[in-house]
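dumping these here so i dont lose them again. two proteins, back to back, each one seq then structure tokens. dont judge the mess
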Amino acid sequence: MRNSNIQICNEIIHPGEFLSLALPLPELFGCAPMYLPIKILQGKQSGPCLLIIAAMHGNELNGTEIINRLLKNKAVQKLHGTLILIPVINVYGLINRLSTLPSTFDLEKSFPGSENGTHTGRIAHIFCKEIFSKADYCIDLQTGFFNHSNFPSIHVDFDDLNAKELAEAYNSPVITRLKPEKGTLAAYAFENKIPYILYKAGEALRFDEVAIRSGLRGVLNVMRKIKMLPLRNPQKSAVLKSFIADKNIWVRSSMSGINHSTLKLGQYVKAGDVLCEIKDPFGVGDDLTIEAPEDSIIVGKNNIPLVYEGEGVFQLGVFSKMQQAASHLEEWKEKTVEQFNEERSNS
């Protein structure tokens, strides 16, 4: 069946068209104009509307690169339905290399916003009214904090069964239960019955090739799941399934100092294993040894050697079938490297 027209920001997009829009945002000092970049691909054939956003915290670059590569992917030439892409939703943060807006508010916790609300709330309102209202599904591409790396994982509200199916289709190595907090886009999506999944991988202000390629592959998997793209040959389909984390634990330092550790993301640790040693930079005080509280896998880590008292140094994922999860993630890393090397040789 032929696709129908869609209207966004007073623009009509016809079947088979690709359009770039710039949605006006609240101005800054000096009347400097700001715009939200929007890319819209309208398939010739009917299908759902998928919204993909990146850089919710302006210093997150991996998601922006995933969207840029998706636009160049030959698969989207066979698109059914509508693809709405927001390469940078927090334009202000991107310009200033920060995660927050000029008002220091966090955009992620400001939805649905208000037309007459705060600066942040007005941006959220514009986005929800003009963009989010058109979506049938939403994928949010984020990274870890600045100098904090995240192992590729999908976060999803298990109470939304449709969203859970998307998370499984994404085929990220880890799925984490998401409990939407009031004011988040996840909570707003659940209220409006729009399946929403959050992909987190890598760290802010850094390109991570594994995070980018895995994220792009996951987006294409979801698009096939909701029939926006043709299904792949079964022989080329991913054989590894995601493992669900029962909980995540932040391990924090009880003293300030220099963090010494050789552990990596995705590494399996047993209860009592040494995660790191915190040493006094002046060589005066005693060293602190931090151990794993229980059998777990490293899904996040602080990359800054200097840490403050109370600062998180590792994020650990706990799985019900720990040994199987550890083997799964190790196999996933090996297969990912093989796939990337094959893609590089064929490019």
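---- next one ----
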Amino acid sequence: MRIVIVNDHARIVGGAAKIAILSARALAERGHRVDFFAATGPVAPELAGLEVTCLGIEPHTENPSRLRGALQGIWYRPAARALRALLAQCDPRDTVVHFHAYRDALTASVADAAQRAGFVCVYTAHEYSMGCPYQGFFDYRRNEICHLRG
């Protein structure tokens, strides 16, 4: 089986990146072909020996132009094109695309690209953003736990 792991960072910068990188290594050690797709580098030493695509872009929040950063943060077409190019080399019948984090640089454009190409997609929800727009199940205006359902 081939597994394409997608994460904003190719280095350990937090919990999601650490899990993405360590799971890539563990899957490869179990005999799977693993491709790691990320926006930002440098590439972690734990990824040595794996196929790594690192776009070399910075998170949209670090873009010197607020307007370009905002546009990049909504939908980043170059990342989607790069993932489509990688997936063109894969067979959807034996490839799984595993998403970890794509909020900081890649955007949901990469998830859309994989789904439209017909790949099985798996999402590890490291953050609460899938169920809560504020990402914490907390009502910050009232300063209390939020019990609303998404």
